[in-house]
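Sequence, please.
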């Protein structure tokens, strides 16, 4: 019998660990989004649909370069394309990817530093430590208090 005490169950720890395949796929996705140009494209396309020319103008890269980035994003399933006549319009529709991109830009300030975390709601905050007690008044001095008689000298 194990002599160690039982630990309380933490719901966050009860979650299944990711599989090797999940870890590899997640790492591949993060590696794909690690390119500033691709992250810029995904951020733009999370707000609507764009054709290659519009994306190239906004990102400041050539049409062939944008096409290569879009091809990689499509193969990974991050971006989808819809053809209308001679134009293809690209968008990000996966709510998980949209949430991920939104969260990263909420966490990074415009100057590139990490943004401070927003204040937690009062119900989610840990209990505040008790307020310090006011200091006790100083003890009465043990020196004699001068009387009127002493001040006439």
């Amino acid at each position: 019998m194990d002599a160690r005490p039982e630990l309380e169950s933490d719901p966050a720890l009860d979650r299944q660990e990711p599989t090797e395949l999940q870890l590899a796929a997640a790492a591949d996705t993060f590696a794909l989004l690690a390119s500033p140009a691709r992250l810029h494209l995904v951020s733009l396309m999370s707000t609507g649909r764009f054709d290659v020319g519009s994306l190239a103008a906004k990102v400041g890269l050539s049409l062939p370069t944008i096409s290569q980035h879009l091809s990689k994003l499509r193969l990974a399933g991050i971006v989808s394309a819809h053809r209308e006549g001679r134009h293809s319009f690209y968008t990000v529709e996966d709510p998980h990817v949209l949430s991920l991109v939104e969260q990263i830009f909420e966490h990074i300030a415009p100057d590139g530093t990490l943004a401070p975390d927003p204040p937690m709601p009062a119900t989610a905050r840990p209990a505040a430590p008790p307020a310090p007690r006011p200091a006790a008044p100083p003890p009465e001095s043990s020196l004699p208090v001068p009387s009127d008689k002493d001040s006439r000298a």
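Helices lie at 20-33, 36-45, 52-59, 63-75, 95-107, 148-151.
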